[in-house]
Amino acid sequence: MPRLRAWLRLVLIGATLAVAPPAARAETWLEWFNHTMFGFNADLAARFEPVLSVGPAAAVPDWVKDGAANILINLVNEPLTVGAYAIAGDGARSWHAAKRFAINTTFGYLGAVDRASEWNLPPDQTDIGLALCTWGVPAGPYVVLPFTGPRTLRDAVSDVGFANLLIYGMLSPFVGFPPTVQAFAIVEILDIAATLAIARQIEGPPEAWRETSYDGVRETYLVQRQQRCAAVGPP
After folding, report:
1. What does the alpha-carbon distance between residue 112 and residue 74 come to, in Å, rounded to a whole number?
2. How far apart are CA 46 and CA 27, in angstroms?
């Protein structure tokens, strides 16, 4: 019976989309996708958070977890920040990020230790999506990505595209070209981990993403991104 109801629901959705105008049809599909991914991410978090709080994962010291996240942020986000501020026309902040990357990579064990902050160079990260925003590139429709959560189309393309290029560029001496399926999977896992670490640093801890309200998360993210866009750009 549940399977029959599911099939009937799909048939009704298909019939509705078939008679809807093209614009409404596209919007309906996107909303369906977003709600599906929102539910998937919420379910994933509910299943994995208890697992991470017990067993072998819980035995890993916090300094190890934080160090690994810091390395990803340093090796992925600092170079992206250098490029993002350069695109936005802020040479001073781009140079600031470049110095942080050089110091933390060489003296901070690839970034596990934020040595740059100890040397009076605090983090000031941004991303390519925000840099494009300062040039008037429209945000596009709101999308929810699997694993990494809310984005706009502009932010999703820039985040995924540039981060993948950077990570693959760093790994290419070891994985070769073209990448194997295993190498591609490793790049994607690192990209997801880096994206989550970076989002947590730029936007703050994404507690709002765990709300049960899809509309609440959407509104929080879009307002936050618009505020961040206004703060990026030439001085």
Report:
1. 8
2. 28
Q: What is the 3-state secondary structure (H, E, C) of 99-138?
A: HHHHHHHHHCHHHCCCHHHHCCCCCCCCCHHHHHHHCCCC
Nearest alpha-carbon partner for 133 in 225, 223, 26: 225
Ramachandran bin of 204, using left for φ above 0, alpha for ψ from -120 to 50, beta for the remaining angles: left
State which H helix or E strand residue 143 sits in.
strand 142-145
Maximum alpha-carbon separation in the chain: 65
- Residues 14 and 68 occupy one common structural domain: no
Looking at the structure of the chain, the number of domains it has is 2
What residue has token string 């609440």?
Answer: 216
**Whether pLDDT at 178 is above 50:** yes
Phi, psi torsion values for 142, nearest 5 degrees: -75, 135
Q: Is the pLDDT of residue 191 over 50?
A: yes
User: For 31-84, what is each residue's pLDDT tens digit?
Assistant: 999 999 998 888 877 776 655 555 565 566 777 778 888 888 898 889 999 999
Contacting residues for 166 by C-beta, under 8 A, at least 6 apart: 76, 79, 80
Residue scoring higher pLDDT (89 or 56) = 89
Whole-structure pTM value: 0.76
Reported confidence tier of residue 198, pLDDT bands at 50, 70, 90:
low
The conformation of residue 227, written as its DSSP 8-state character, comes to: H
Same-domain status, 114 and 209: yes
Radius of gyration of the chain (CA): 20
- Judge if 133 and 39 occupy the same domain: no
Joined together, the tokens standing for residue 71 give 């390395």
